[in-house]
Amino acid sequence: MRKLTFREAVREAIIQEMQRDQTVFMMGEDIQLFYGGGPFAVTKGLVKEFGPERIRDTPISESAFIGAGTAAASTGLRPIVEIMCADFFGVCMDQIYNQAAKMRYMFGGQTKVPLVIRTTIGAGLSASVHHSQCLYSIFAHVPGLKVVVPSTPYDAKGLLITAIRDDDPVMFFEHKVLYSIEGNVPEEPYMIPFGKADIKKEGDDITLVATARMLHVALAAAKKLEEDGISLEVIDPRTIVPLDKQTIVSSVKKTSRIIIVDEDYERCGLASEIAAIVSDEAFDYLDAPVKRIATPNVPIPFSPVLEKYVIPSEEKIIKVAKEIISR
Amino acid sequence: MILEASLLKEFYRRMLLIRKFEYRVKDLFVEGKIPGFVHLYAGEEAVAVGVCANLRRDDYVTSTHRGHGHCIAKGADVKRMMAELFGKRTGYCKGKGGSMHIADFSVGMLGANGMVGAGLPLATGAGLSIKMRGTDQVAVCFFGDGAVDQGTFHESLNLASLWKLPVIFVCENNSYFESTHISRHLSAKTVADFAAAYRVPSVTVDGNDVVAVHSSVEEAVERARKGQGPMLIECITYRWEGHEEGEPWTTYRTMEEVEEWKKKDPIKRHGGLLLEKRVSTEEEIKRIEEQVDAEIKEAVKFAEESPWPKPEEALEDVFVSPYY
Q1: Is B321 close to A168, i.e. CB distance below 8 A?
Q2: Which of A157, A228, B80, B243 is disulfide-compatible with A9, CB 3.0–4.6 A?
Q3: Domain that holds residue A93
Q4: What is the pTM for the complete model shown?
Q5: Domain residues of chain B, as ranges?
């Protein structure tokens, strides 16, 4: 099978869906020309193939173009709207969580909103406080949005195609640092269902749940821990809403220990959610307290020394794994 | 511009339907039959009716928290509207939305909204959808002078102008948002002033003259259908009742001010026009009133006799495909 980068996998999903369905189109800032197409070059070359009507550059007006995407979705089209960084959601949050997320419900099912909002997340580039956050838990918290966080090129393409074909609003989070990683990606279009976690590595001693770039950090930690005779089962949820509780809980019933690694801020985040689910549904199986490894409750600092300190790391995972294995 | 007699009479009937609906709602709200909050459109009828008379069924409107008038003007069924206000299963939104989120997508009414200014990007999106699908539909955005304070107004006008979208922005300038007079919340002299900055043609019209509203919007709709882009119509109007029913509106405006505006009653005025121009007779007008009364009575009966939703229905309609 041929290899694609994460970026190319996302691009291919968009191209294949836009070729298949004329109602799919894209809107976002700088998606036509910047870096050849998109601030992270994801949409490179697309305006040449699909034209400026279907690959639309927008003004810096997130409220207007997210709202426009919402209503365009409920009047016959299937927009993919790009917000440059998840950090920017503050300026258009009403259109996302009060309008797009609630339209179907508040109008009693009269309409649907087949909208995809793609955005970038994550630290590691010293992009500092306003360009490094994850924040997907905020969107998972509000009813009416599906939340997708791929970690590999294969997952990215399959999940994005599903997102575009889904009739509900989907938030699709792409980690900046992952854009250049490579992986096997089938040429033909394929769909990965929402609500289906992927066990990226099987193991017996500790369940470890991780998303996006943390998935790769977890796999690296798992490799090191094998040498110490500790076997991690690494689970990638792939979608936070809907969440595959069953795979996670079954794993905990097997291992009796769980660590959740989340690059988002710790307080009230995904890790807390999974911890609550596990303590409710696998209580009698736990031999150790549920552990969360997340970014502490501080903004993400600029200096590489500081940034490295706050983001969850292999070292932190190994330390916590060794703490709970002896219980 | 000579309008057909049937259209002129329909203006009267439709405005009266809104007026009587609103005052019936007021009573029912005070009686406790309508939960939550209601924001009455009484006094502003000429705007909704004059605008929507230019629209086809497949044209879109977005609305505000004060949306009953837009809904009726666009052609919704007052029975299903009343049922929704009561919170019954037979309401337009199955009881999920209520007064502030009333909608009838089958006639292009894309919903009332609890967020000030939220309808502007949505109407812009409906316009974008129209343009990309290549039809000659138009989208009308109703919003108040309060919404002009919001960033969404500026972003939406900029975007609709830039992309030449078929959106007609109708500002219902009733001089207040809640208790705050426009002199204290907007720095510009008029709302229409803003349009020039975005290179959007605009016009200011007497919002209590249904014929004038109709004709100013007629031009805007024609332009939009031909792909000539957006227009802003500022309608100067006034709400007779409080921002929401139950609030003591004398804390910020005087009885005298309200009485002055009531003298400009758009319905009385239009009724006088019908008689003066001999389009209608007194008997005919009385018959229209009786018909409207009957329609409202039927709507209330329907709402009262309709079933409540089952409590578990609260968990439905979030997603098309829940994956649970």
Answers
A1: yes
A2: A157
A3: 3-184
A4: 0.95
A5: 5-303
